[in-house]
Amino acid sequence: MPTAGEARWWHPVAGADELGTGPLAVRLLGQDLVLWRTAGGVADGTVGAAGGISAFEDRCPHRGARLSLGRVVGDQLQCAYHGWCFDTAGACRSIPALPSFIPPAGHAVPAWQVAQAHGLIWLARDPLEPAPPAVAGVPQRRVVCGPYIVETSAPRVVENFLDTSHFAFVHEGWLGDAAHPEVPAYPVEATPDGRPLIPHYRAWQPRASASSGTGAWVDYRYEVLGPYAALLSKQPEGGGVADAYTAFACPMDEERTRVWFMQFTTDAATPDAGLQSFQDTIFSQDRPILESQRPRRLPVSGGELHSAADRLSAAYRRWLAGQGISFGCC
């Protein structure tokens, strides 16, 4: 069950293209949930639009059967066990065994709030904002990579995305060079609402992008978008292809994560499959490191050492603690 800290944020649970005409089982914050779309509902690319999608606990309040085994009947979700029907708000509207019975409010199934953004379906219990995090000032072309399932906590995944000193070792020959492992001093600032931000960070990359065959100095900008989301923007020296990347992590369980990486790029030449293959390679290098870390939950209360190269990681941990985020943390 999400604490008040996690309940205030939007969390991605599925790609918009994963939800068809039937219900879809998903998992978030240790809970089994079900997504379903009314027969008249359509996918809507507008940020925040639910597109006719509802999200419930994946458990019928009658006898505990999974509602994801049921079916959509018009604008209601019908349980596969005894046919109880629930409307888009979770209220029980009919019980086939008792045709004349009017179900009371107590027969409802708990519902979550739903939104769509960046090609994903997002859920929240008591969101602080009306829509999932915006990604502003990025190129128009968006390529979705993943989802990837990782046997570690969502904060570990996001901290790795924010880490400035592992490129020379984990991604040597791709994003880093063993001859340039040094991390220059950089300031950690904050957005107006307090999220950690590095406005400028410079690094050498042997292969600055999927379309690049040579090395280049790259200017980075890092921004924490939420407890389990972050943005990285980069621009090679002298111009060229400008890219922005997001990590959107779904904390399925305390130590299991589903994560999407998205690339926003001006590269019009490389096919989606080429960009996705590049990301597959990069994450295949990250995955064994992430799954080897102990504890799997991020130690925001101490227990790991820091260096000056870890300023952003340390700021992210302090921010999580300040936001009351405990899922995936220790």
3D architecture notes:
The chain has two domains: 4-124, Rieske Iron-sulfur Protein, CATH 2.102.10; 141-322, Alpha-Beta Complex (Naphthalene 1,2-dioxygenase Alpha Subunit, Chain A, domain 1), CATH 3.90.380. It has helices at residues 4-7, 154-162, 167-170, 272-292, 311-322, and strands at residues 11-15, 24-28, 31-37, 53-57, 71-73, 76-78, 85-86, 92-94, 111-117, 120-124, 141-150, 189-190, 196-205, 216-226, 229-236, 243-253, 256-265. Strand 2 and strand 3 form a beta hairpin. The longest helix is centred in the C-terminal third of the chain and has 21 residues, at 272-292. With 330 residues, the chain is an alpha+beta fold. Strands 11-17-16-15-14-13-12 form a seven-stranded antiparallel sheet, covered by helices on one side. Strands 1-10-9-4-3-2 form a six-stranded antiparallel sheet, with no helix packed on it.
